[in-house]
Amino acid sequence: MSSKYDVLVIGGGNAALCAAISARRGGASVLVLEGAPKFYRGGNTRHTRNMRCAHDAATEILTGPYTEEEFWEDLLRVTGGKTDEVLARHMIRESKDILNWIVEQGVRWQPSLGGTLSLGRTNSFFLGGGRAMLNALYLTAERLGVDVEYDAEVTDLVIEDGMFLAARLKRPIKGETEIRATSLVAAAGGFEANIEWLKQYWGEAADNFLIRGTPYNRGSVLKMLLDKGVQEVGDPTQCHAVAIDARAPKFDGGIITRHDSVVFGIVVNKHSQRFYDEGEDIWPKRYAIWGRLVAAQPDQIAYIIFDSTVVTSFMPTLFPPIAGQTVAELAGKLELDPVALEKTITEFNAAVRPGTFDHTVLDDCVTEGITPAKTHWARRIETPPYLAYPVRPGITFTYLGTRVTKEARMLMADGRPSANMFAAGEIMAGNVLGKGYAAGMGMTIGSVFGRIAGREAAKHARN
Fold this sequence. Notes:
This protein is an alpha+beta fold.
């Protein structure tokens, strides 16, 4: 390993690899520093399935067009307008090229999986999932001559007046060293695995959060950058947080612990009370609000309740549902008040108005006379066995990050662009995602800005 490179990439996931490949194809010498051991390389990319990209027509794996304007409208809706429009529209426009560019880097697509709820037109699925996608990018990077160092914990960044000079790192066997580079790409993710940092904003509730991905995303590189004068972006309490099975491990549960059954039933808290409209919008545009909703409930626990008529309507998860032949029996297994749960379900059933059920559109199956309403896909829960999943907040990634330009160049706190520092992926996702989420968007941010960051970092090194 050399001690001087044209481009240093910190991180080992999708954004980092896209940056490394892009920089190498731009003629730069490149080193990737992955803080995790090789087996756990790739951060949250390991647990992904798909990417959302704009496209003008159906393809072999996409069922129809998804225009730039429709993508923008979806992003605007899920973020409530909290997005940098210039950067967001730039990302959407660039995403059209990514569908082909990522294939050129060895990644392969497959048609959407059954039970993924309305993603066949908008999202491209990786053949073999996120780990296969990641392995393809690493193979391409290594064939191009990119150096990769694992178990490489960055302990300090030497930055002077907005210019990156060197990174100091320690490794279990090789010890400490310093790497100098002409350009830096930071693609090291957020701070979702740093419970103490989460508690600064969430208080003791954060102790009940489960981390869907890697335990290595502790935000150390992000903190160094912010401490050394890089401008921050994003609300530290905002994050991609979904409802995952409460029986999942503290870290690394991944996609198989996520529940997509909310729209087919009701969700109650520990007092057996509903607290939000389960049918607010098409699931891929609303699934990522449920982590925050559950986080606001007592003890950060909730229960998805449904009946036997819908068990084949959604993707099965790692953990089986808890079942009871009666509502009271189910309540007992969940340690809920059976009288309260029966009352909630009885009142919900009475409020359901008949309609034509269709989970792929905003249908006319609604409730009347109860609060909160269920505005779509409302059906009576009345066919035993009655089923439930216990869920907790599952944090995917945080939105506090580094502010960047269209060229993925970091901005300093005084508004000046950095001389040679770029960012891609979750570490800068807050530029686009002020709040909310739509399925596959994290991978889009990573791939698009990774490719840009690598290209621009190489260009800076050449000059």
